[in-house]
Write a structure and sequence with these properties.
By secondary structure, the chain is of the alpha+beta class. It contains 12 helices and 33 strands. Strands 1, 2, 3, 4, 5, 6 and 21 form a 7-stranded mixed β-sheet that branches. A 5-stranded antiparallel β-sheet has the order 23-26-31-28-29, with no helix packed on it. The relative contact order is 0.14.
């Protein structure tokens, strides 16, 4: 009974806190994205009073909004609470960690962070003004359904996808694409490449061959600008669509609001131009999620990306954004309905899509449709340091990194227009870029703070300071969460020392993240990879760089080689030991791994056929067993390649995960 009374009292207090017209806290986080929840939780665990403000009705942003096929790049880059989040996803599905998941599972985890953190959340509170004085935000005003709510804080963290607080505070930002010559880049600005492209010869006019008939819907009349030139256009948004093929959990795909089949006329022409492309996977990235669900993304020339229809979104007011969001929803639902019903759709594709529908158990308060449009890019701060292509490729390495990124430099198409080629007018997409192959790289702390003198108490981990093409690599949900944790640590230090955020020591932030990765004092993993100076090697190991490794590179040998990972263990206890197993074409059928802890020695044969790599990742952690390990460097993992030479044996990384954190 006492427990129930305590819970009720806590709930009442929480309700009273959120209903107040004025709030005064140490840290105000604006934007309940995945980054926002992690920032609020971290600041609260540091002992600060925190308020999380979400202009919408849901937490988690894209992570709860359908993006279940996580864009990782390289697991090495993901640390701290961000990694812990995917470990918890894994626990839900009975695995060590997992990067593919259902929306409601992610939602429940973010709600758990709110409960564990004990910080209040204001839903449906929209920013109207930010009052500044002496180069700092003093308070912000929020519209809560016609009621004005005021929040004052020592530090503010903008975790929106749009950078609304940053803009209201008068911080310098940009929208669109820089010309390549601005930052000496190669892949910025206008780029007409082959990815997600429309094949040659597809006519752009309503009446084929007749320019006077007008352009098909979605095609711009503007001419193609010079390659590498800058503009204010924004890469396309879409919805990451969660459907199910479980008949018992399905709401049928029906005709949506404002359905107009003429929007999909270009798609119908693509069907004719590509007669061999007749399946859903030819026109959608149809990624399977657990429990018979999907995360559907854009693929090829005409798909879920609503190209060219979002240019006004970044700087628009909420009413205009709502219209743009509704247009994207109508377009996307209409696309699904068109594919399911229009007679011009290839029969195999139509038969496939008829087996799918909206899941009853997802987005139950939003008509089973995601409440989060995929805002891939909006405003980008022009901060104390600007991340560029050179940072992504390793040509320039910052010394004040507080997080890492690793994904391909990625931009979706930005416009659909007409070009003249081989004596014909034809429609093409422009703006898609996918350039990768580089290892994880650090993200500068200075890219998360405004220029000195602009705003001394604001941190921006989502709309951070980066060029368009560098942002395309950094802008991934796991990275946003990691950078958000770093900004919360920085906020705590700024308050403790009563200094501007620009004066916070990035090395101190990194040190705290390393010592306290889970923000609550629990012990973190003990990681050792092949780059460690403590690694002992025998035989002929060769270094393999590029994609596939955990981190910058990995070691591989075909025979007569041995590598010993002997990490420093700080605390005696039980540890579960994992080996990172990269997905390679020529892995050895069996990798012999020996784990030694004191007098306990265990040989674990890792069989290639039993390692199932799931999601956008180069490999998986393979469990070797749980061992009682004394502090020091007495335990080790030995990987050996025998004399047979039946494929590559890889020595990449091991982790020791404490049983009790």
């Amino acid at each position: 009974m006492k427990c129930k009374i305590l819970i009720s009292a806590t709930a009442l207090l929480f309700s009273l806190q959120t209903a107040k017209a004025q709030h005064k806290v140490d840290v105000c986080v604006y934007g309940g994205s995945s980054a926002g929840v992690i920032a609020a939780y971290t600041a609260q665990k540091a002992g600060r009073s925190v308020l999380l403000v979400e202009p919408g009705a849901y937490l988690g942003g894209l992570t709860t909004g359908g993006l279940g096929y996580t864009d990782i790049g390289n697991k090495y880059a993901i640390r701290g609470l961000s990694l812990e989040f995917y470990r918890q996803i894994g626990q839900h599905y009975g695995k060590f960690e997992q990067w593919v998941f259902e929306p409601h599972v992610a939602d429940s985890l973010f709600q758990d962070y709110v409960k564990k953190g004990g910080f209040p959340v204001l839903y449906k509170h929209r920013l109207t003004t930010a009052s500044t004085a002496n180069g700092a935000i003093k308070e912000i005003k929020l519209d809560a359904g016609g009621k004005t709510v005021t929040v004052s804080a020592k530090i503010f963290i903008d975790c929106t996808y749009e950078g609304d607080l940053m803009a209201k505070a008068g911080v310098t930002y940009t929208v669109g694409r820089e010309a390549n010559d601005v930052y000496n880049e190669t892949w910025n600005g206008v780029q007409m490449l082959d990815g997600h492209q429309i094949p040659d010869g597809v006519d752009p006019y309503k009446v084929p061959g007749d320019p006077n008939s007008g352009l098909l819907w979605g095609i711009s009349p503007l001419p193609l600008a010079q390659k590498g030139s800058g503009d204010k256009k924004v890469q396309a948004y879409n919805y990451r669509i969660c459907l199910t093929n479980d008949p018992n959990n399905m709401v049928p795909i029906t005709q949506p609001d404002n359905y107009d089949p003429s929007r999909y006329e270009l798609l119908a022409r693509l069907f004719k131009a590509q007669p061999n492309r007749t399946t859903l996977s030819d026109y959608f990235i149809w990624s399977r999620m657990p429990n018979n669900k999907t995360d559907i993304n854009n693929r090829n020339g005409f798909s879920t990306d609503m190209i060219g229809m979002n240019y006004d979104y970044p700087e628009a007011d909420y009413a205009t954004r709502e219209k743009i969001i509704k247009q994207h929803e109508d377009y996307t639902k209409g696309l699904l309905y068109f594919c399911a019903t229009d007679r011009r759709v290839p029969v195999p594709m139509q038969e496939e899509i008829k087996k799918w529908g909206y899941p009853k158990d997802e987005y139950v308060k939003n008509g089973h449709w995601s409440p989060q449009l995929y805002v891939r890019e909006a405003r980008r701060m022009k901060g104390a340091y600007i991340m560029t292509q050179a940072n992504c490729t390793g040509e320039e390495v910052v010394t004040d990194g507080v997080g890492m990124a690793a994904y391909t430099m990625d931009s979706h198409n930005t416009q659909r227009l007409v070009i003249h080629k081989d004596g014909k007018d034809m429609v093409k997409n422009e703006g898609n870029v996918e350039v990768g192959g580089f290892p994880p790289y650090p993200v500068s702390y200075r890219a998360l703070v405004p220029k000195e003198g602009e705003c001394s108490n604001l941190l921006v981990p989502v709309c951070l300071s980066a060029s368009h093409i560098a942002y395309g690599s950094i802008r991934m949900e796991p990275v946003f969460m990691a950078l958000a944790q770093a900004t919360a640590v920085a906020a705590d230090l700024a308050i403790a020392k009563n200094i501007p955020v620009q004066k916070v020591d990035a090395a101190q932030v990194s040190g705290i993240l390393a010592r306290n990765p889970l923000a609550d004092g629990r012990q973190g993993d003990v990681l050792m990879d092949n780059a460690s100076a403590a690694l002992q090697k025998e035989g002929e190991w060769k270094t393999i760089k590029g994609s596939g490794s955990y981190g910058t590179d990995m070691l591989a040998a075909e025979k007569n080689a041995k590598a010993v990972f002997r990490p420093e263990i700080a605390k005696t206890g039980n540890y579960t030991v994992y080996l990172y197993y990269p997905r390679l074409k020529n892995n050895a059928a069996v990798t012999n791994v020996k784990v030694v802890s004191g007098k306990n020695e265990q040989l674990v044969p890792v069989k290639a056929e039993e390692v199932k790599v799931v999601g956008q990742t180069s490999g998986e952690w393979v469990k070797l067993g749980t061992f009682n390990i004394e502090k020091g460097n007495k335990a080790y993992v030995e990987i050996s390649a025998g004399s047979a030479g039946e494929g590559l044996v890889v020595a990449d990384a091991v982790i020791f995960v404490p049983e009790k954190r």
